[in-house]
Amino acid sequence: NIPPLVIKSLNVPRYSLIAFANYEVYLGLDKTQKSRLDEYCRTYGVGILSFTDSSKTADQDLSGDYGLKMQHRVKLLKMKLNAEVKDLWRIAKPDMVFEHALPTDNSEWTIFMTENPSYEPLAFSTYYIIYTSPPCLCSLPSLKTSPLAPYTSLGGIDGIQKVLLGNDPEFFLTSIIAMDGLASLTHGRLALPMERIVQVDVDDMFVGVAAVRTKPKDAKAMVECNRRIRQYVPNFKLFLGFTGAMFLWGGDDNDEGERMMIEKADEFMWFNHLYRHELLYITPLDRIGGAMTKNMVFAKEKHIPVVKEYMILPHHAGVYPVYPEVFDEWDKLGYVQATSTLEYPYRHPQWGRRGFVHRGVMVLPRQTCRLFTKTISFDIYEGGQKAMDESINGGYMFKIFLTTPVMVFMTHMSNYATGQLAQYEFEGVTKAIATWTNLKMVAPHPIDAAREYFQLYPDEVSPLWSDPARDPNLKELWRVNKTLPVFPKVLIAGPQKTGMALSFYTLLLNFYRSESVHFNSHTHNGFYISLARYASRFPAKKNEQTVLFEKSANYFSHHRTPQRVRELLPDAKIIIIMNNPMRRAYSWYQHLKAHNDSLSQQFTFYQIITADDTAPEVLRVAQKRHLHDGIYAVHLARWLLNFPSEQLYLVDGEKLIKDPASVMNDVQKFIGVSPKIDYTTKLQFDAEKGFFCAKSTGCLGSGKGRSYDKMDAASETYLTEFYKNHNEDLKTLLNSIKHPHPSWLTAMQDSSVPS
């Protein structure tokens, strides 16, 4: 089924583009669904990008409505882009011709045939058969429609701009067409920048056995490599990570090569890679500072121009998972601003790597080029030279350049010695990109590159920790003298003033507790300081029956929290308590008033919740704090994007107050604890407080369950109207996950029905 397309309460579209892996899925939609999708596209100017499935045995004739025929399972020779479609080409160079048979590794091709002028061919090809004369490039493996000409003699196109492609994006020209099509269909909103920042790090300079160290011929080849790449990437220099203690350890020929590298030091950039290539997951952490400092002393003695603001640690140890001691040392040095790693949030898949900023240090994602420490000849490279040539000319490496605006590649000294594979690979791929695309490759200072990355991806500044026990690479990088951390299995996510304290208190009767550490905190005392220090907040489990949990009233509505929780605690059970949002807002006001908050003393509840754009900023901020948490549909949708509904337990806040024993018994089933306790025997109603309390320890403090005047009629009227559409969205969302409506939502719905 097609998901909700419009945010009703805001009347704004959810999606900038509709994409299909197979165009026939779109054509085969239920009539009602297709009509709904088409109307959405027309109303909001949203385009459709679609590939095709050429496994079909029969042609598809769409002439009745679309004036188009698709022929499947075709083998093609050559491809030329249509230079006349000037409004679409951006990355592509349409004057280039691919002269070979089009690849059919994944599937054969679909071509499009039409006489409808509403279609524009994007590429031409020809059947792959033997010709007595040069073949004509007449078949159409891709095309687009124009909404400017929606009517034709055949009944017309539907007024929706589409880009249709006759194969999957594995073939590099199809990828380029798709990227340009995506940019065009979204009017640039989903377009990547045209610049590609290229940085090639060379780890382990002066490290390794004699057979793979730098000889004079290798040193010369590296200098020449810089020169040749600069034809396509101005100012490019290989970026060498040096380990001073191992200089001249390789023997006569190697020593001459390494001396030559020092003589030619200005031909390269250099970064600190620790003095003895210390592996920090087994090296005493009190040696980190000395290893950094000694290496800089070596560089000064050898007149090496070090970019001291950038540092790579061997095996990326200490960067992620974070060792606080590493960042402590960088703080002491006072000049380290950037590093990079393969490991965040996970090493695989490579396109899933991200950056983050921790304690002022920018951590960039590193790319691999399939050259590892022992990859010193084509015999060792998987697939040999043929596989590398394919990677360079449209394959793996070409696609990284195509889709990655800021590239920081990891290579090793050994890749530039012996078979000189790294020189071959990077010279080849930069030439291929310059040949086939309009991309502008640049090589700024590494710190400028890091800043550019986080300008492009500001959402990545805040880190997302993950559990190292769940990934073998992260587990290896966790300090060997530390036990793997134990994290909570249950989170009570809020929101504020919905019976949180009561549920937390009653949970304490059964489970071990830990106070909130805050996934949305921006202080070093909270989530950001490090994974190890976050984990240290939780007590060791006493037995398998112990369930660790934490609660925070702020988790539910904070926009980043669900993603952070999912990364670290993907199996966690999430408990969300939803009370009547009008009651929740009023309760929050009374809470502030009871704590002598100056704003609540100065303004009435009605004045705060009705603050408009002309009100003082402090009043507008207070209005948001009162009303924002009660927009349940928006916040719940965010949790459902990160967790399956089976991991969320939605508590009816009214029921929690009136019948907490029943709710807590259900919560135990949801969490799966054993043995269970019967909360009907643990709680009793307190007539003075007006709610249930624990028999053994009595009621909550005087700040809980306080009495206050009934909400005024004007505020109730305003809030009823304010939450009306939001509550309708909540009903739709709950229906979509087949969850019953809470009692307060049903009551509000019933009260709105005319008698």
Automatic annotation (TrEMBL):
Ranges of residues in domain Heparan sulfate-N-deacetylase N-terminal: 10-183
SS bonds (residue pairs): C693-C699
A Pfam family this chain is assigned to: HSNSD_N
Biological processes per GO annotation: heparan sulfate proteoglycan biosynthetic process; heparin proteoglycan biosynthetic process
Domain Sulfotransferase positions: 488-697
Subcellular location: Golgi apparatus membrane
E.C. number(s) listed in UniProt: 2.8.2.8
SUPFAM superfamilies linked to this entry: P-loop containing nucleoside triphosphate hydrolases
Pathway this chain belongs to: Glycan metabolism; heparan sulfate biosynthesis; Glycan metabolism; heparin biosynthesis
GO cellular component: Golgi membrane
Principal location: Golgi
Xref: PANTHER family: BIFUNCTIONAL HEPARAN SULFATE N-DEACETYLASE_N-SULFOTRANSFERASE (PTHR10605:SF56), HEPARAN SULFATE SULFOTRANSFERASE (PTHR10605)
Protein name, as recorded: [heparan sulfate]-glucosamine N-sulfotransferase
Organism whose genome encodes this protein: Elysia chlorotica (Eastern emerald elysia)
